[in-house]
Structure formats: C-alpha cells, structure tokens
Amino acid sequence: MRKFSRQAQVLVLASTLVLAVSGCKSSSSTGAAAGGGTVKVGFMGDLTGANKQLGINIHNGAKLAFDQYNATNPANKIEFTDYDTQGKAEQATAVAPKVISDKMVAVIGPAFSGESKTAVPILEEGKIPNISASATNALLSKNGWKFWHRVLANDDVQGPGAASFLVKNAGFKKIAVIDDQSEYGKGLAKAVSAGVTADGGTVAVTDSIDPKADAWSSTVNKVKGANVDAIYFAGYYSAAAPLVKQFKDAGVTATFASGDGTLDQAFITGAGAAAEGAILTCTCVLATSSTDPAVSKFISDYKAAFNGDPATYSAEGFDAGTAIVKAVQAGKTSAVDINTFLATEDFKGVSKPIKWDAAGELTGGGTYIHRVKGGKIEALGNFQDAKL
Which of 72, 58, 73 is nearest to 27 (CA)? Predict the structure, then answer.
C-alpha cells in the first residue's frame, strides 16, 4: 500500500466529512462500470460555489472530449467523476485524498490557484497527473511538481499584457489596482502593478477587499478620491459584479477592468448596466466563432451537448481532456504512464498549441482583451493590437 504523509492521512478523514455534504458523482454519459477497461479521471473544481460557472465551463469542455472518445471506443472508456471543491482551498485539500483512494489515474483541475496551492501537493504525493484549465498564479510552477500542468499562460504573462493595454493602448495613466486576497488575486494584482509602472503609468491606489463582505465603502472612497483613469480588479466575478456597481453608485467614472476570474457572462448578469464598458483580460481565448474547422466543430459540438456557447475556459477544458484522451489512445492507462506521455505531447488544441515544459507550464500563450458591450462579452484581440 502506498504511504502518505501524516497530513494526507488526516485529510482522508476530512474528505469523508466534506464529501458527505458536497458529494461526488460520475458524470460519464456512457454508463461504463468501474474496473475492467475503464480509465478513471476526476474533475476537481467549483461546481456549486460562488464562482461555479467557471468550473462548470471547464467541466463541460473536458466532458465533451471524453464523451466523444467514448462514443467510438468501447474498450478503455473514460469514466469522469466529479469532486466539487466549491472553489475553496480547504475543501479541495480534503477532497484530494479521496481522489487518490478512488484510484483516479488523472485529474482535470484543480481549477483555481488557491485550491491548487494546497491540493496539488497531495496529488503529487499520490502521483496523480493533473491539468488545470484556469489556475494562473505564476508561483505554482515553482514548486518542483512533476505531475502538475496547466493549459494557459500564467499571470506573469497576463499582468504585463493587461497593464500594457491599459497604459499604452487605452491611454490610462493613473490606475487603481485592487485584489480579493486570494492566491490568484494577489499574484495577478502584483503583476499588473509592476506592469503599469514599467509602462510609465502610475498605480495611484492599491487595496484589498474581502470578497465575502457586502460593501467596500473604504475602497470605493479611496478610488474616488484618487481620481483615477481606470480600476483593475484582480479577483472573481462574484465580487467584481457588486464592486463595480458600488463604484458606479458612488459616481466613480473610471473604466473598470478585471482578469480571467471575471471574464464570464455571470459578471454581466450580476452587475447589470454597471458592467457596460468593462475591460476583461485573459490568457484564454473565448471560442464562439472561428474559421478554423477544428475550432468550429468544437463550438458546434459544445452547443449541441450543452445548449449554449462555449464560455471562459471551455476550450481549455476540452484541450485538457484531449491531452488525457491522447494518452489513453496511445495505450497509457496508469497514472504514471499517462504523466510520462503528457511530457511528450505537442498538439494543436482548440484554444492554442498544447506543449508543456518540464515545470508543467505551457510553452506559449499570450494576453487577450475583451470588452462588455451591449450586455455581451466582445473579443478585441491580443493586447498589442486591441483597440477600444
């Protein structure tokens, strides 16, 4: 029997308590039974929490890849099992030992940076390859993990790209940078602030908010008093929506900007008219239309499967799932063999080319700019060329 650290052993008991509340379920549509030729893959991410839509988008993208594989491969079908973390680091940490004891051979996720920081060490100890479609904190790849990967560029790419667009393209010189105190938010805010300064702008306000609070009058007053040109919020849409409304209600006219954690229609739904004109950055690409046949097919298949357009991280989820599919197609069905195979992969995904370096970082990628216009998210292109 594999031996785990005292922390992991304690967390096995904790996971039982968490799973009694959140549950885990198979999301495979094939009805394949465990054992035999079944390859068991887990999903770790937010499915019912405050920012659940981001997790659902990833889940659906990966599920589409697995369902398409299963439809033509009666042997070694992929069974996809959900481990709902609600986007919480403590829940992800408690769930991780369950993933190991359930004998998953790979994981899509963890989704967010905070849960990745605490749960991936357990997956690493269990030698379970994991691919995140959305965790962008730059420090994650500095941990020496051998089983961790992500399918988008990190915040050391997004931050400077966002700053360059705001200062050079949009002409905003005086900027407020606010974070939500999450691992993701703090890292992105730091990168954006450094980028603004490097590009000749001024960071006039830096502040942090508690995303669980109902009002942030102190932050709003600081920003209003500084008379900034733009506000960059590094955090998730569940806080971004009420925050931008409070800025608008207070008479703040600065352009609101945020990162990939806010890049979802749920932000617009929550903020209403206050979201109009917001700038949203991401190292992901929203795949809603394309002249590329493979991407067009993905969009069409996604719409048919889920009755809606692909959204933020859907394409990344599909590419993460495709990476696992390619390993299984090559006859790699154990966790260690799948991980070894991932290191050799180099393919054109629907979101971007997929190839990893030794640290699990994607070897390419850039920053893309979006704008809320007419109640919808409009893609403006890469940060160098995008115009308002």
Answer: 58
Q: How does pLDDT run across 75-87, given as a tens digit for each residue?
A: 789 999 999 999 9
∠ at Cα 388 (185, 135), nearest 5°? Answer: 25
What is the token pair recorded at 385?
A: 């060329």
Domain boundaries, the chain: 6-154+291-354, 155-282+367-382
Contact 342, 331 (CB under 8 A): no
Q: Which residues are CB-contacts of 18 (< 8 A; sequence separation ≥ 6)?
A: 91, 94, 95
Element holding 24 (H helix, E strand): strand 24-26
Confidence bin at 287 (pLDDT 50/70/90): low
On whether the CB atoms of residues 244 and 274 are closer than 8 A, the answer is: yes
- Buried residues in 268-301 as b, exposed as e (16+ CB within 10 A): bebbeebbbebbbbbbbbbbbeeeeeebeebbeb
Q: And the tokens for 249?
A: 């209600």
Under CATH, which architecture does the 6-154+291-354 domain have?
Answer: 3-Layer(aba) Sandwich (3.40)
Report the C-alpha gap between 85 and 68 in whole angstroms.
Answer: 26
Q: How far is CA 296 from CA 89, 144, 191, 311, 317, in A?
A: 35, 37, 34, 14, 16
CATH 3.40.50.2300 for the 155-282+367-382 domain, yes or no? yes
Domains 6-154+291-354 and 155-282+367-382 share a fold: yes
User: Over 50: is that where the pLDDT of 264 sits?
Assistant: yes
CB 267 within 8 A of CB 237: yes
SS (H, E, C) 195-243: HHHHCCCEEEEEEECCCCCCCCHHHHHHHHHHCCCEEEEECCHHHHHHH
Do the beta carbons of residue 182 and residue 236 sit within 8 Å? yes
| CB 350, CB 341: distance < 8 Å | no
β-bridge pairing 376-382 and 368-373:
antiparallel
The b-or-e profile of 159-187 (16+ CB within 10 A means b, else e) is bbbbbbbbbebbebbbbbbbbbbbbbbbb
Cβ-contact 281, 383 below 8 angstroms: yes
Instruction: Return the number of other C-beta atoms located less than 10 Å from residue 302's C-beta.
Output: 25
More confident residue, 279 or 285: 279
